[in-house]
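Researcher: Structure prediction, please.
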Amino acid sequence: MGAEAGVDFVIAETFSHAEEALIALDVIKQTGLPAVVTMALHREPVTRDGFTPAEACKRLEAAGADVVGLNCIRGPRTMLPHLEAIRAAVSCHVAALPVPYRTHDDEPTFQSLHDPEFDGLPFPTGLDPFMCTRYDIASFGETALGLGIRYLGVCCGAGPHHIRSLAESVGRTPPASRYTADMSKHAYLGTDARPAQGEPGVRRAALAALRLGERPVMAPRVGSTSAGSCIAGGAAHGFSLPHRSPAPLAARAGLCPAGGQGRLVSERAEGGVRGGTLGSPR
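Model: Predicted structure follows.
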């Protein structure tokens, strides 16, 4: 039924018990489609039924899984050592999808993280202080690829910039790469030429908006932006658009080229790795 529906492969993920993962694999194999099966490792370095991740993945490969590995619960730092062991134990493709949080040896899962500034457990809604940067995720991607891991992603908590940075770190250029931060255009840290005398800049427009008592909102980036705009997270952020009538002031401020009215584009919809193949498992 899956093949008739155009399904390429079936994913079974976030298993804490190896035996449960084997049951899921058996069901997938009955469809005749390739199977991706990934375990989730909690604070203990073994599955709930006592297998190391490498042992569990080796059993899954022997039972017919096409891709095995880990997803969720652990961040890049505390997942990588187990991924290296899995890569050495199996010959099939290996998957790696950490959560984008800075877990460490004492608190290896995002559920176990503690914030000294917060009275209670940060998980699940107070994890902001532990968030990985796009550079953390890019470093993870480079390291994982170097180990021979070719099925890569980011699990719970990921933002569009994480997915985009991961794709770029392994040599891909997804459509959303056009939103990758170009620091040469940064108002204070960039290298591009300053605006000509008399050209309306973002700073002047922002001050004018503040004098008018207007509420500041963001201007999405479409094409190029005028010098003086601040690039953050791949989009140009301005301070001059009044919420009552954005288009005229936006045009005057130089924030919205191509007609003055900006257009929001979802990075999440375009941030993933599209097309391509996994290639050799190693």
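Model: The first helix runs from residue 18 to 29.
Researcher: Thanks, that helps.
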